[in-house]
Amino acid sequence: LAVMPVFAYDQENTHPALTDEIVDFYNLNFPNQKLAYQEKQWLIQGSIEEDSGVRMLYHFYDPVYNRGLAMMAGASSKDWGLAANFQANVLGRQYAGFTSVFNDSSEADFSYGRALDDYAKGDRQRALIAFGHVLHLLEDAGVPDHTRDDPHPPVLGFGSPYEHEMAKWNPENFDISRRLFFRREKPVLLSSIESYFDRVANYSNNNFFSKDTINNKIYPKPS
Q: What is the value of pTM for the model shown?
């Protein structure tokens, strides 16, 4: 468990950097609906906190076989982020009988549906923190290791070279939103949040190898 926190993009650097740029790109494209600085910080907070505890075991989504991390027989990040009551049920079982920050599983539910409910009730802070949790899952769906059933603990050479390289970026040195905007790139607008998970995960799975899936025959793409 000690190495679990680095099964993903770096918690303190890469995820905050990506979330920061997502907000900046959004604000450039929707100037009449800009998110304020504090709202951005809540989103970044959620993107960092999603890596806490057992949550990181549910950050895998193989879109070809519609599964999470096979060795854990776990649900996918798509299920974790979107299925009603899934997080509350999992965390409730995990921490039953223990004193924990998660002992109220409903308080540990940062799913998309819960975020919408909190937003509708006027709790904008908790809603945006939860949306940050969901952004974390979408960001991980862009990592081939996470879409090709490739657990990658950073021991004995099993780690992800891509994630290791990406850890050099943080909100202070990562600035791509303006370049995308001035190149006239536009946000991808899809009909549902499920479609975003599928779009990102399929792009990652179909076009890129992870270090440990170059020679396997499980996935038909890339050739």
A: 0.88
